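Question: what's this shape?

___
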Amino acid sequence: MIIAIEGIDGAGKNTLVSAIREHVDAPVDVLAFPRYDTSLPAQLVAEALHGRMGDLTDSAYAMATLFALDRHGAREQLMSYVNSEKVILLDRYVASNAAYSAARLRDDAVMDWVHDLEFGRLGLPVPDLQVLLATEPATASQRAISRAEQDTGRERDRYERDTDLQQRTYDAYLRLAGRGWAGRWLVTTDPADILQEIR
């Protein structure tokens, strides 16, 4: 199974992934996107989000393409989980690109563009389950601020500092889940719900 854990910055995705991994009765692999340590497109994203790539972040489509290319670099790894006994938890996947792009452009039409780009042209596998960690944006924002204060190497990026963007992204995620975009969704904050759905 390929299980994508989605949510805005500070929602608690990493904590949730760790909790699920401990309680699933099977070996579980984990992969987080963007892959800042190993992927050139992801490293360019990080540079842009911290203001070191000129006006690159002004283009929602350019940023979405870099995020997509980062995932495409992991395509072979992801395909090994299709129709297999293995389980992988993804800390963000394609829906994050759709939600953030729609929030930035204030236009849901880009959701279909992202779907066609990543699942179509780039051939990424569709997840078996997408989980929206439905942490309220105000709570998530406080967590992101606290995390940055505790870890000097974890400065908040342009997207994380934009509270209006985070709210619009959260709303876009809810619309994606409501549409059943790219498959099955579960909207919750309870790890027990997720474990039950996986089982």
Notes: Residues 96 and 159 are 12 Å apart (CA to CA). The first strand starts at residue 2 and ends at 6.
